[in-house]
Design a protein that fits this description.
Length: 317
């Protein structure tokens, strides 16, 4: 979507943002080839490691010990594009200086589980580190994300499920030529939720989320967001399903809301009170036909209510 940040009526490259909501997206970005050919090397390496002590056989153990309740999964991906120098051939994906590096995708994810899939004091800790760099005609853009996430689930009797999610993130973006796109945002989030399980096919949720964000460079923008929500899910085996959600956001934002950093921090919402709601209905008509209906609405203090809906008929061949 396009924001006329400087109010000159001219569509400039740094004024386009990825739309947070479907109705806002009115433009597409098309990357066109040019006549400048750059010789490059591209190396890609991916690896996944899973440690599951439960598979180990413990002799004379009547009850599972602490180690068998643990489960760890680590995944790593590096995809690097570097400028080729002469006839040199580089097979090392970890080698690439800042001067000749044209593109980079680096992802690291580690998840440590306790009582995985049990819903009884189930806890997981996730560490995520992503880095992405792209070189375009107007210079390079580099983004990075580091995240720590702690997730706790516990089922009380057979009808109540408690979930608490806490995260700490650092989200950084650097653009070679567009200073307005630069930010370094620290974020803390706490999200408790309680679920009432009526049956295997019916459940209701109530949740709260507190988010604090701070940009440590530029205009030093800050955001305190409180979110209250209700949701439900109704299903009839595999034939039909209906789900809905209602959210209320209260945003206390300090800084220029009409800026790329403000749009990033509030995720497309506005300062003050915001409402969003959605309904999704799915119906299996025949063995080969599915009918889906979705509706989404939102309202802010400074805009009219926006309604978005779609109907989809899906056929399997």
């Amino acid at each position: 979507m396009w924001f006329d940040y400087n109010e000159n009526g001219i569509q400039e490259l740094e004024e386009f943002e990825i739309a947070q909501y479907q109705d806002q997206g009115k433009y597409i970005r098309v990357l066109l080839p040019n006549q400048v050919f750059i010789k490059t090397h591209q190396n890609r390496l991916s690896q996944t490691l899973t440690i599951n002590p439960k598979q180990l056989k413990v002799k004379n153990a009547e009850q599972p010990n602490f180690l068998t309740r643990l489960y760890n999964q680590t995944s790593y991906l590096i995809d690097r594009k570097a400028k080729r120098d002469g006839n040199n051939f580089n097979l090392n994906p970890f080698k690439g200086g800042s001067g000749n590096q044209l593109g980079l995708q680096l992802n690291f994810r580690n998840v440590l589980f306790f009582n995985r899939g049990k819903q009884h004091y189930t806890t997981s800790y996730t560490y995520l580190s992503n880095k992405l760099k792209n070189t375009l005609s107007f210079g390079f853009i580099e983004t990075s994300l580091k995240s720590h996430q702690l997730n706790f689930n516990h089922k009380i009797y057979t009808t109540w499920l408690i979930n608490v999610l806490g995260t700490h993130e650092n989200n950084e973006s650097f653009s070679e030529n567009f200073v307005s796109k630069n930010f370094n945002i620290n974020q803390n989030r706490l999200n408790p939720k309680i679920t009432y399980l009526v049956s295997d096919y019916v459940k209701f949720d109530a949740f709260y989320q507190y988010t604090a964000k701070e940009n440590t460079i530029g205009e030093m923008e800050t955001l305190e967001q409180q979110k209250y929500g209700l949701s439900f899910t109704l299903s009839n085996s595999q034939k039909a399903a209906l789900s809905g959600e209602l959210n209320f956001f209260s945003n206390t934002f300090k800084g220029n809301a009409n800026s790329p950093v403000g749009y990033q921090m509030m995720e497309g919402l506005q300062p003050g009170k915001n409402f969003t709601w959605n309904i999704l209905a799915q119906k299996k008509i025949t063995k080969f036909l599915d009918l889906n209906f979705s509706y989404f609405g939102r309202k802010t203090e400074t805009s009219k209510t926006v309604h978005t809906g779609s109907v989809q008929l899906k056929a399997y061949f």
